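Anyone else keep sequences and structure tokens together like this?

Example one:
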Amino acid sequence: MPTPEARINALGLTLPPSLTIPSGLHLPFSFVNVRGDRAMFSGHPRHGLDGAIDGPFGTLGEGISTQDGYDAARGVALSVLANLKAEIGDLNRIIGWVRVFGMVTSTPDYTEQHLVVNGFSDLILEVFGPDVGRHARSAIGVAALPMGFAMEIEGELLIGP
């Protein structure tokens, strides 16, 4: 069975390095917190191949399309996987996804947050398959997120030795 990273490569995608925190930004929390057999990941934006946060920034329903949001959520999934790998050492240690919570900055009349966060969920299922990748999920619209992010996604998963 191919590894999660082999599946990422087979999809034509690249796992970025772990996130580089911008100089001067104080974050009194961990992006990934491992407790026993669980790993919780804090709300993640997307970051690029240089490790720097690259958004997306803005508002769904006002300048960002649902498809653009979906694509960006796939990028957020790669960012989460990169930070998980940096923390746990090997993505093969992931034995189950528990839950995912997506927050999407959107206009009051925008109602496709679930379709945006599907980008994250779909990539996790493509990389880990239906057994390991299956997860509970919520997707909500919010008026604003830190630093002007268009979305943040957090969640919890099970890890093995």
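And example two:
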Amino acid sequence: MVHYLEGLSVTEAAKLKKTVAALFRQTCILQEKYDPAALAPIDNEQYGICVKHRPFLEAYLEVMGCELVHDAKEHIFRITGEGVPAEAVPKSAAILILLVKMIYRDKIMGEGLMEPVTNLAEIREYGKNTGLLNGKLPDLEWNEALGQMKRHQIIEYPGALRDMDDTTPIYIYSAVNLYVSFALLHELMEQYKEEEVAPGETGEKDFYQDAFE
């Protein structure tokens, strides 16, 4: 593996190392990223690096206790296995992921096949209509959930969190399907509707267990 890196240019080797780091940080790499400022998709260079160096990545990740999986339909590379770092998700964040999943489903499969773009106001509306968000979540919990979803390639939004308002466009990636399947969506909705969402609640689950795997 060292010899493989030594055979690359300094620039190419650096890009490959950054791609490996990105896989461990966000668990998946998409072929297209969304530029919310321009409201247009752009090619993701790291996806091309995964394609070009796939045999090396597969061998390297296997040593690390991980497997590189390619979803040809969704155009996503992701890592699975015991070597993937576990990340706890607060219940409030898990519920927000469910709401984002519902919005994605309705936009993609609903009338008109709309772009999967939402905003904070719509997420709150879905939360109220489904009974999943009956109370107001603290700003800190919103920020942590949005940051976690962006890091794991579930959503994309322009600028910094502090600059967001209720109408700021939030693009939803198809990667949300990796964390919540359609089959589990209604089951999880009923489960969370039966439980009260209290501000500051610490109930957490591993990010890659149950629905999020």
